[in-house]
Batch of 3 targets.
Target 1
Amino acid sequence: MTNTGGHEERDVVVRLTDVRKDFGDYAALDGVSLEIGAGEAVALMGPSGSGKSTLLNMVSGLDRPSTGSVVVGGEDLVGLDEKGLALFRRRRIGMIFQFFNLLDDLPALDNIALAGQLIGLKASAARKRALELMGELGIADRKNIYPASLSGGERQRVATARALMNQPSLLLADEPTGALDSRSGDQVTHLLTDLNQLGQTLLIVTHDPRLAAQCARRVVEVADGRITRDRAVDRAVTTEAGR
């Protein structure tokens, strides 16, 4: 069953329709249909091997379905070639990873600005936007610091700024607090919550029920390649309790 969250057609950012992904005789996804509306924050949860990472790869265009349809931000990903998928990711998707994926030989500002240059911004414009984002995320004073000298929470904020450089229609976060201590994890949780409150659409893969409860408005549970539950979260209560 397709889940719409009550959004009209024009508000749908992600639409998966009867998606199946086979790896040999193994079905990592088996008939998954899912819709995410603009401005929603959705947490994707499930045990290891449940299919949630494969689902995330479908939405990001990093993998292709064996059958079914994947439409993100109005783009039919099944119809794009590899070059088209790469352009789609650069222009429409922001991605945050568990282990940050920062370039160790570049200071924080240049890590962020590089993402802007990859989507066609001039170097000066990319640095200007990077500085603006660092200010908004509370790390402007860390602009000349290299990743190895940043705390875990600071590195994830740099990674988040990098992901926001292209003003993405969808921000994907893959275990964004998985490599952080509890204090840094709380900082990133609050950051994602604040971004969503400003209108950013989020899809978060996490094992952490606390992160899901505080950041998400919906929790989608996956097991054996299928969606087993799709429930609303009363974030007004859980967010207040977590602060």
Target 2
Amino acid sequence: MYDQAARERWVDEPPKRVDAPERTPFERDRARLVHAASSRRLAAKTQVVGPQSDDFVRNRLTHSLEVAQIARDLARALGCEPDLVETAALAHDLGHPPFGHNGERALALAARDCGGFEGNAQTLRLLTRLEAKTIDADGRSAGLNLTRATLDACTKYPWPLREATVPSGVHADGSPRVVRKFGVYDDDRPVFDWYRQGAPQRRQCFEAQVMDLADDIAYSVHDVEDGIVVGRIDLTRLDEAAVVGVVRDWYLPDTDDGALHAALGRLREVASWPTTPYDGSRRALAALKNLTSDVIGRFAARAQAATLAAYPGSRVRYLADLVVPEDARTEIAVLKGIAAHYVMRADDRVRLMQRQRELLAELVEALASEAPGDLEPAFADDWKAASDDAARRRVVVDQIASLTDASAVGWHSRLLGTTA
């Protein structure tokens, strides 16, 4: 199913030791991702609620593990390579900076004169440059040196910034969305163009589509679960009009209110949808887990059935597209809207997010003014090798994007002598 080109690496590697375990190229890719330093850092990066706020809520690492499980099961059912899809799922959030999408917003503004910032483009940069594993013949880092098919599967937005569409909707504070979705910075184009050889323009490969859906399913369901456990969401007392308004503002601006109300109605008909408020008991925890399992299975099964019906032949790379029924997509968006309204739009959350963006903006300027002195050694080397101010600014952004929530606060305190 996957030809030699799909298994090729950007930098040729010598054969492994004869006494090493025999593994496929995609199994090796997965192992490299699991052992990467940037994977470990995800444990201290915000998913929705900060990882330090509660022992139960997800962080970026636990979210990625859950996405990987859903993606692997879908891949197996659909007939594409499970190891490849799982690797893409494990990698999909590597490029997120401190404070999640809120930090992404701050760094996009700070990087506007050096090519912008986007978490998915930063993921590609990590996989092919910043995460040290392989050095090429000229002494440059090739990152983890993953196979062509795996890199393609990791690419949610296969286009550069200049081809990205203008975002719609608003942020939690009511301001217009500004971060454009794209998957590659201009100076990472050589490796992007290599692994996208022969790919239809702007089209995700099938494996990336599976990963993308698994991500949507996981965070739509689990963000609601986290919000319930920390006491911000009560599914028995939803402000339906407010939720529908957020879904339209944030996710589905062209969908009419009737369709959104109908989607929420269908979700309420799921047998495990709660009829009493969550009270933290083991019975309530078990019921909540049953709900998340039921809803995840509902979405995955509908996509699986629709895709198998539409593509009875091979479903790999560019031989098929994942089919997600429109009613399932609408239900996923409604779940996202519930979390957005009750968690992301809460007044205390909006104030915290504002301070987080200010902290990162101040940290960018502090590091830029003192570089390379305060940069970690690898980034200091990048800064010294940079050819112009824009390239040096990019190095500073790379350094800050690599930090966890806690280390960003710590660096800010150390460099500016203040607390967050």
Target 3
Amino acid sequence: MTEVAQSAEAELGGLLRSLGVRRGGVLMVHASLSGTGVAPELVRDALRDALGPEGTLVVPTFTPENSDTSRAYREAVADLSEAEADEYRRTMPPFDPDATGCPTMGALAECVWSTHGAVRSTHPQTSLAGLGPRARQLLRWHARRSHLGRLSPMRRLYAADAQILLLRVGFEVCSAFHYAEYLTRPRPARRTYRCVVGDKGHWVEYRDLSLDDSDFGAIGAGLPRRMLAEGEWASRAVVLCGMRDVVGHAKGQMSGYRRALA
């Protein structure tokens, strides 16, 4: 380990403690390590040290790449011919929670799900992975028709009074806000999703809420500062908050102006 990496790891550990990461608690982390020069294994270990042996670390390990109804798929085939797009779709690999990477979720997420002893939920699009004594209980069941709703681990994270850490990323990627979408009234519209599971070429179709993250940044910017513990690491902002607090605020916001825009 370089001296710079050692210093950054030590600084991160001190920051996590000062922000108020609960020992023995549940912590869901969204992170960007780009440009830090710090290996994801060191960040994973710093997070687990802050949580202590009884704490549980959770990360989103979403896999939009194996769906033809995702933004990632549309971007991947945008410049392909019809024949090339058909071949791309035909050869898309199925989701396997023990083998499928999550390249769009960052180095820390990849590190956590691939760590020995990690538990990963089975949703082919919006899985979560965790390390710690409560990981299996929190992630054990994930209904396909509930990306991040009442039949997903997100509800159990909410019930567990999880904390959320945004490590050098903004609320634009705060997946807990999707749980708020399931709690709003009137309920958002539903749509059809498709993805590959089990074997190559085995496509499944299901319906769930039409999830919309376009206003997450604005919702985060409007959160009362008393809900947030804020700091900085590797030249970018770090925010710690309680999942119940921010989901409750997001639900109120969405139930108001999203109804007006419907």
